[in-house]
Amino acid sequence: MEFTTTGQIIECRAAVSWAIGEPFKMETIQVAIPKAGEVRVKIVASGVCHSDLFFLRGGAGPQVFPCILGHEGAGIVESVGPGVTSVAPGDHVIPLYTPQCYECDNCKSPYTNICTKDAMLQMAGFLSDGTSRFTCNGQVVKHNMGCSTFAEYTVVNETNVSKIDPTAPLDKVCLIGCAIATGYGAALNTAKVRPGSTVAIWGLGGVGLAAAMGAKKAGAARIIGVDINPAKAEIGKMFGITEFVNPKDHEEPIEKVLVKMTNGGVDHALECCGIASCMKAAFAACKGGGGVLTLIGLAPLSEDVPFNAYQFIAGKSVNGTYFGGWKSRDQVPKLVEDYLSKELMVDELITHTLPIESINDAVDLMKKGDCVRSIVKF
């Protein structure tokens, strides 16, 4: 694909978030020319994730606004700034909210995937030079999670973009940018689900179902889905769920139900809701002497979770995961290849595909639990 916009400011559509609690507003924005080390991408499609709802509800505070959300996208490189070597105009790419700079201590470590380069700037909504490439109505609009895929064109750091196979459908593999990679990797890389083990997964949205897929891949014997939406029971089977439990169907706490079901507790609990009470219940459902809780869901940054200290003494442990533990630029292309070779389910998560102008409808579907994943397209 050839672009005639290289070297020019681009005017395009975007769903802008102006303040906490306000719906997305479709706007015409200006997207500046990429600077050194930056990549401008024409976004084709983006998933609408619960983490977007986290920001909309104020989970990270008011300082992130106004901004352009979206971190589960895929598109085509329109132009690159000086010094960019890993991608070129026309390349198909997935923007990455977890960068990989190859230079920081974490990127050089085999024990973590959390890059520290520009981490504070990314949290603040800016690129590497501390500024934004977005303006709307004369006002600076911030980036979000280093991606901002709810804009028809976005600018990302080269560290935040991965080149993928051009034959992969962009309106499908965009989900590898968050839900698939996060849940699937949480089970395989972080929890390290053991063959023959018992796994319980709280929340069967896109991330939870991907986690089930990872647990199945790892050889878990029992994969118990926990969700208050009974519709998730059937789709869960497709991804590897062997049993389904709805907390609303039981008078006693769900952790007691699971302890009885599993004769003492589960080997692995994967919490995908980002709800403190679910995290506490999931830890209580882990068996003593080796049960592990892996926290995946994004809770409000100010929220604490009270765990009883004796649970740790009894041999339980807690860990957390970010982007499923994948080294993003290195491993996202491989996940796309796994999808193309039918080793990784993606299409089955997509229940709705909408135009970007209907993004608030996608949010409503998510709030009501009437979708697994909605895709918005430009």
From TrEMBL:
Chain ranges of the Enoyl reductase (ER) domain: 21-376
- Gene Ontology BP, a term: formaldehyde catabolic process
The cross-references to InterPro entries, in alphabetical order and at most eight, read: ADH-like_C, ADH-like_N, ADH_Zn_CS, ER, GroES-like_sf, NAD(P)-bd_dom_sf
Which Pfam families did the record assign? Answer: ADH_N, ADH_zinc_N
Q: What cofactor is needed? A: Zn(2+)
Which is one Gene Ontology cellular component term of this protein? cytosol
The record's Gene3D superfamilies line, in alphabetical order, gives: Medium-chain alcohol dehydrogenases, catalytic domain (3.90.180.10), NAD(P)-binding Rossmann-like Domain (3.40.50.720)
This protein's record includes keyword RNA-binding: no
Q: Which UniProt keywords apply?
A: Metal-binding, NAD, Oxidoreductase, Zinc
Q: Which GO terms describe its molecular function?
A: alcohol dehydrogenase (NAD+) activity; S-(hydroxymethyl)glutathione dehydrogenase [NAD(P)+] activity; zinc ion binding
Q: Name the job this protein performs.
A: Alcohol dehydrogenase. Catalyzes the NAD-dependent oxidation of primary alcohols to the corresponding aldehydes. Oxidizes secondary alcohols to the corresponding ketones.
Q: Which family does it belong to?
A: Belongs to the zinc-containing alcohol dehydrogenase family. Class-V subfamily.
Its name, as the record gives it, is Alcohol dehydrogenase 6
